[in-house]
Design a protein that fits this description.
alpha/beta, Rossmann fold, seven-stranded mixed beta sheet, 7 helices, 7 strands, O-methyltransferase activity, S-adenosyl-L-methionine, SAM-dependent_MTases_sf
């Protein structure tokens, strides 16, 4: 066991939704890694965040976990894949949180979200990785001052530092994700790049 695996084991707690996680593994649905999920939920507790805007619902796994932190929390979530969206809605209903979820079947790149600016405590970006900058620019205005913006998969399973990429699409993806990471590291926003899961970027809405 290496140090990264040791820390991941320590960070991984009880799984509240084993059936959904098993489904994700069986169907190859990408979901947030267990140690990154633990960090995400810890951030929610630290900030006492109760309203979440999620870009990329998938099958509702991360959304359920976010909603599990506080019984009075609410989730606005966007998913463009119809099959994933329908599965997520079923999962929200199964765990009796459907009344706390505003789920949109739409493309986050083009959706016109009817939401007041500075109205959510946390923005969680976990959709098409090459659009991280677009999603940040489009949805960060909805986050309250001193709220949080969290972006998953900023390391692309190591692809982001791979200089031997030959495939054009992978190379473009790497360049886009790296450009976003570099932009945020040089921005006026307080940021932390956490090497948990596939990399978690935590951004405070307040500028320095």
């Amino acid at each position: 066991m290496d140090l990264a695996q040791y820390v991941k084991t320590l960070n991984t707690g009880h799984e509240s939704y084993p059936d959904i996680l098993s489904y994700a593994v069986e169907k190859n649905v990408p979901v947030i890694d267990s140690d990154a999920l633990a960090a995400l939920k810890h951030l929610i507790r630290i900030k006492a965040a109760k309203t979440y805007l999620e870009i990329g619902t998938a099958i509702g796994y991360s959304g359920l976990h976010m909603l599990s932190v506080y019984d009075d929390s609410r989730l606005i979530t966007i998913e463009k894949d119809e099959a994933s969206y329908e599965t997520a809605v079923e999962n929200f209903s199964k765990y009796k949180v459907g009344s706390r979820v505003d789920a949109h079947l739409d493309d986050a790149k083009t959706i016109d979200l009817n939401l007041d600016e500075a109205s959510v405590d946390m923005l969680f970006i976990d959709a098409s990785k090459g659009n991280n900058q677009l999603f940040f620019d489009k949805f960060s205005p909805f986050v309250k001052e001193d709220g949080l913006i969290v972006v998953d998969n900023i390391l692309l399973r190591g692809l982001v530092i791979d200089d031997g990429i030959t495939g054009r699409n992978k190379r473009k993806l790497k360049e886009k994700v790296d450009a976003f990471n570099q932009n945020m590291s040089k921005s006026n926003y307080p940021t932390s790049f956490l090497p948990v899961g596939d990399g978690l970027l935590v951004i405070s809405k307040s500028q320095v």
